[in-house]
Amino acid sequence: MGVQTTVVFTDLHGSTAAFESLGNVRATETITQITSWIGQQCTAHGGKVVKTLGDGVLAMFGDGQSAVAAVVEIQRSHFKRLLRTPAGLHMPIRIGVASGEVEIVAGDCYGDAVNVASRLCDMSGPHQIWANAAALGTVHEAKGVTFRILGPINIRGRAEPCTVYQIEWREEETTDFLTMQGDLDPALATGDADALGREIELTWMGYSKRFHSFDLPVHIGRVRNVEFVVNDPRVSRTHARIEWRNGSITLVDVSSYGSWVRFEGAAGSDVLLRREKCVLHGSGELALGASFADSTVPTVAFVVK
Q: 20-47 as b/e, with b when 16 or more CB fall inside 10 Å?
C-alpha cells in the first residue's frame, strides 16, 4: 500500500572534479563527510534517510514543512561552509523536493514523487532548491524564505507537465555572508558563482538583444530609455524588469495590466504575473499587457542560456 510522503534528493555539484583535484582517497572522505552531514540534518528535522547515492542523499519526510525547513538549513549552513573553503574544493549542493505517494519495498522507496524529486535535483543549479507544487501546498514561507514559481516543466516519464517552484533561501542571509572574512571567490561571496555563464536573449518583431547576467537588471517597456523597447500601447512605459536574483534570471512584472509567461512545451499552463516574480528558464514567450488568448498581444520570445 502506498504512503503519502515528501521526498528530498540532494546532489553535490562538482564532485567529479573533486576526484581530479583531491585524489580518490581525500575526495571520497570529503564527499562522505558532506553526505553524512546532510543525512544528519534530514534526521534532525524529522526525516528518514532512505539511502546515499555516492555524492547524493535520498530522504523522506512526513510533511512538506519539515522537508522545506531541512533543505533550507542544509543550503544555508553549507553555503557558509563554502565561504571558508578554498575555491578549488567547492562542491555546492542542489536539491529536488516532491510530494506524492510512494511504495516502500525492502527499505527503499519508489514512485512518481521519487522520480520527480530526482529530476528536479538534476535540473536545478548549484545552491538551488526546486520543488513541485504538491510539496509546498501546505507549507508557509518562513522568515527569509520565498517560493518563486518556475512554471510548468516537462519531467521525463510523465505525461503532464509539473508545476515547479524555486525555494529562495538567501534573502536574509546575504549581509551576514558578505561580512565574513577570508580568501573568498568574489562571485561566490555575492551568491553569483553560477552567474558567470548565464545570459538571456529577447526577441520581438524580428529584433533581438542578448543580456549577460552581469548586465542585469534590464527593463522592458515602450519608452526609449529602457533596455528592450516594445512599442505597443498595451505595454506600460516600464512594463517588466529582468534581474539576477538568487542564482536565477527572474522576470518582475511592474506593469498596469500584467505579464503572462509561457514556457516552451507547456501551452495552456501560462503563468500570470501582476506585480509578481517568475524565474525564467529554458525558452518561451512573454505576453505583455494581455493574455496569449489575444492573438494581437505583443509577444516577446526569450531564451535563457
A: eebeeeebbebbeebbeebbebbeebeb
- Do 111 and 132 touch, CB atoms closer than 8 A? no
What does pTM read for this prediction? 0.69
Give, to the nearest 10 degrees, the angle between helix 64-82 and helix 24-44: 140
Kindly tell me if the per-residue pLDDT of 188 is higher than 50: no
Of 261, 260, 259, 255, nearest to 281 (Cα)?
261
DSSP classification of residue 286: E
And the C-alpha cell for 265? 512545451
The whole-angstrom separation of Cα 271 and Cα 149 is: 8
CA atoms of 60 and 70, how far apart (whole Å): 11
Q: What domains are defined for the chain?
A: 3-193 (3.30.70.1230), 197-304 (2.60.200.20)
Residues 69-99: tens digit of each pLDDT: 999 999 999 999 988 877 667 889 999 999 9
Grid cell in block for residue 105: 519495498
Q: DSSP string spanning 129-197?
A: EEEEHHHHTTPPP-TT-EEEEEEEE--TT-SS-EEEEEEE--TTTHHHHHT--SS--HHHHTT-GGGTT
Between residues 120 and 24, which one has the greater pLDDT? 120
Dist. CA 262–CA 151, nearest whole Å: 8
Conformational region of residue 275, where left means phi above 0, alpha means psi within -120 to 50, and beta covers everything else: left
130-186 pLDDT per residue, tens: 999 999 999 999 888 999 888 788 787 787 888 899 898 975 444 344 333 334 444
Tell whether omega for the bond before 86 is within 30 degrees of 0, i.e. cis: no
